[in-house]
Amino acid sequence: MKLTRQKHAKKNMGFYKHNFHFREPFQVLLDGTFCQAALRNKIQIREQLPGYLDGATQLCTTRCVLKELESLGKALYGAKLIAQRFQVRNCSHHKDPVSGSACLLSMIEEGNPHHFFIATQDQDLANKVKKKAGVPLLFIIQNTMVLDKPSPKSLAFVQKLQTNQLVPEHQKQSIVQLKEKEGLAKQEGEKRRKRKRAGGPNPLSCLKKKKKKTQEGQEPSAEKKKRRKRKRNRVNAEALQSVQKNEEE
């Protein structure tokens, strides 16, 4: 069971690393409900979470979460002590604190630029987090921490990104204009024009064929020498016969 859970966590982490550029140390925003569940189930968050996510982590919360835990009194005193050990991330509610769930939602607005994980047992908050792409969700079930699988919103975002549907038309035009300004478009055109095309037959092969033909047309030098020798012998014989004939007369 533990190996299966670890395998799923590794697969889900790979999804967020590859598609949303999550890097170590992973920043995990925790609310009071998660701290309370960890206390009740005797889970050591700081010690166990890095091993589960297979990487260094930074556990953090917000002032609004701490204020909320203080207002709930003794019932959540243990959860408040746990949350106070974490780093406090600045939120936009300095003067007017809001609920912990509302504060955490505000921290992941505009595409979750700080790559926060959200750790909560609040089902309503979890449902709202799932409606935002690129926000990993952690919760506790059966005395163990679980990284939820990517939400349909995250999957749809990645699919659109792969089909290049998320780039607005005006941004595409801006990219083209920047390329033209830097001369990249002209360079790309020159590279296309310089591409080699398929040529005709190898001229060297033609030369070899011509050379072979001239050699076939020429007679061997040894044959020429034999012909010359026979011609000289014939001339000498005729001359000898003529001399002999004159002597006889």
Could you characterize what this model shows?
With 249 residues, the chain is α/β, with parallel strands linked by helices. The chain has a domain at 1-155: 5'-nuclease (Rossmann fold), CATH 3.40.50.1010. Helix content is 59%, strand content 11%. It has helices spanning 2-20, 32-40, 45-53, 63-71, 77-83, 100-107, 123-130, 152-162, 169-182, 184-193, 203-217, 221-248, and strands at residues 26-30, 57-62, 87-89, 116-119, 137-141, 144-147. A six-stranded mixed beta sheet has the order 3-2-1-4-5-6, sandwiched between helices. Strand 4 (116-119), helix 7 and strand 5 form a beta-alpha-beta unit. Helix 2 packs across helix 5 (77-83), helix 4 (63-71) runs antiparallel to helix 5 (77-83) and helix 4 (63-71) packs antiparallel against helix 6. The chain is rod-shaped and about 160 Å long. The protein starts with a helix and ends with a helix. The mean pLDDT is 83.
Keywords:
249 residues; alpha/beta; Rossmann fold; rod-shaped; ribosome biogenesis; rRNA-processing protein UTP23 homolog; mRNA 3'-UTR binding; rRNA processing
Output mean pLDDT.
Answer: 83
Taking the sheet with the most strands, its summary is: 6 strands, mixed
Individual helix count: 12
Q: Look at the helices and sheets and give the structural class.
A: alpha/beta
Order of helices and strands: HEHHEHHEHEHEEHHHHH
CATH architecture of the domain at 1-155: 3-Layer(aba) Sandwich
Strand content: 5-15%
> Globular, elongated, flat, extended or rod-shaped: what is the shape?
rod-shaped
Rounded Rg = 45 Å
| CA distance, first residue to last residue | 136 Å
Question: Mind telling me the CATH class of the domain at 1-155?
Answer: Alpha Beta
Poorly predicted regions are none
Can you count the beta strands?
6
Strand order of the largest sheet: 3-2-1-4-5-6
Share of helical residues: 55-70%
CATH superfamily of the domain at 1-155: 5'-nuclease
